[in-house]
Amino acid sequence: MSRIRERGWVRSMTAGDPLGVRVVCFPHSGGSAITFGEWSTAVPPGVSLMAVQYPGRGDRFAEPPVDDVVAMAGCAAAELLRLPPGDHVLFGHSLGALVAYETALLLRDAGEEPLALCVSAALPPGSMNNREVHLAPDDEFWATLCALGGIEPAVAENAELRDLLLPVIRSDLRAHATYRPRPGTRPLSCPVRCYHGEGDPLVEQAQLAGWASVTSGGFTGTVRPGGHFHVTTDVEELVADVLSQGRK
Asked: For a FRET experiment, which of 45, 144, 177, 238 has its CA 20 to 30 Å from that of 121?
């Protein structure tokens, strides 16, 4: 049986071999696999929870970050395809939504299209509004990030941690800003589910219907409390909803 490398891109967040249905989570800019750590207690038996670990964070901190969405997806898809055949439900948050979408395309092209693609806190591919945010001076850039609520106060006030995190987050946001969907890409045939955090200052809800164009398999959307980082709000309800999208 193929195994995921110790410091590879895809990590198992639940015990046991990744067989059967696999929920594969893709974190936001600056995020890591541990973002979805709380999800492990909400996943029922028979379902594997997996999360992508981008370079430049966690146990991959010494590796240079990758600032290309398609390249990130290629690495994640390659590892998923080395696993025994199984059913995937992909969940991507913010930047992770784009990486998950590109990963879904690659899995589809390899004959393993996911059961469903779930996207969260992200405008449709190629629709990012502020493409210059990663170019802002350090103080302004950091203040913008902290205002979104995704950085713990203890980290926000630590200058050394800030200096370590800024290059990684800049790289992720550069990947987001420079990403463009490839012309002529065939739509997926799996359902796409879109999650919007109520009051999210980065995502205009009215634009989210554009995600419908990436699939012929049906599109639905829902609004949740919690703003841009709603993925840590009512985790059990969110995980149950994600799994319901993958029912055959």
From this structure: 45
- For the chain (248 residues), the mean pLDDT of every run of 10, in chain order, is 59 77 94 93 92 93 93 97 92 97 98 97 80 58 65 68 80 89 94 96 91 97 93 95 88
CATH superfamily of 10-124+186-239: Alpha/Beta hydrolase fold, catalytic domain (3.40.50.1820)
DSSP-assigned letters across all residues of the chain: -----TTSSEEE-SSS---SEEEEEE--TT--GGGGGGGGGTSPTTEEEEEE--TTSGGGTTSPP---HHHHHHHHHHHHHTSPS-EEEEEEETHHHHHHHHHHHHHHHTT---SEEEEES-PSTT--S-TTGGGS-HHHHHHHHHHTT-S-HHHHT-HHHHHHHHHHHHHHHHHHHH--PPTTPPPBSS-EEEEEETT-TT--GGGGGGGGGGBSS-EEEEEESSGGGGGGSSHHHHHHHHHHHT--
The per-residue pLDDT for 173 is: 86
Which residues on adjacent β-strands are paired with residue 120? Answer: 93, 195
90 Cβ neighbours under 8 A, 6+ residues apart: 24, 26, 100, 103, 104, 114, 116, 117, 118
At residue 5, the pLDDT reads: 43
Instruction: Tell me the domain boundaries of the chain.
Output: 10-124+186-239
Catalytic residues: 94, 228
What pLDDT is stored for residue 4 in this prediction? 39
